[in-house]
Every structure is written in C-alpha cells, then in structure tokens.
Write a structure and sequence with these properties.
The chain is built from four helices and no strands. It has helices at about 5-25, 30-40, 45-70, 80-90.
C-alpha cells in the first residue's frame, strides 16, 4: 500500500526525533533513519505500532548487550531495532 506524504507527520517526526537525540545522545544517523522510516515506509497509520516495536526490540538489544558485557558501558547499535521494527510492522511491504 503506497504511503501519502503528510507534512504534519514529517514536521512532528523531525521535531520528536531531534528531541529524542538531545535527551538520549543517540546518533544523528539513527535520527535521520527513523525520520525516513516513519514518513516514507511505515506511514501515519502504523506509527504507534512501529514505535512500540522499536521499544520492544531495543529492550531486547539492550538486554543482550548487558548479558554479553555485564555493563551498560559502550555503544549499543540502534539501527537493527529500527529496521527490525519495520519488518515486524509491515512484513509484506518488502516483497
């Protein structure tokens, strides 16, 4: 199903993503990736499910990182959670 361009969604996702960047010190590459994914892949109707899946997959990624290193130090890759959430929310869109 093709997504339609929504300028309100674009503006709010840019604003929210940069607020998240300022609060979490997440990399700007991840911020740009989430803006593109929300606006051009997932679309407005699935944003809530997408963000919920990002949270779940990120939690799993953090847990795995902690089990491997026994520490919260170091960098944790966020892009796999962002891309994995797309596959969880819109699995048929990649075909």
């Amino acid at each position: 199903m093709p997504q339609t361009f929504d300028p309100v969604l674009l503006g709010s996702s840019i604003f929210g993503s940069f607020l998240f960047h300022l609060a979490s010190k997440c990399g700007l590459g991840d911020v740009k990736l989430v803006i593109v994914i929300i606006n051009f892949v997932v679309g407005g109707s699935s944003v809530n499910r997408y963000l919920a899946m990002v949270g779940i997959i990120s939690g799993i990624s953090i847990a795995i990182h902690y089990m491997r290193t026994r520490s919260m130090k170091g960098e944790i890759a966020f892009a796999p959670a962002l891309c994995g959430a797309v596959l969880a929310v819109r699995p048929l869109s990649i075909l």
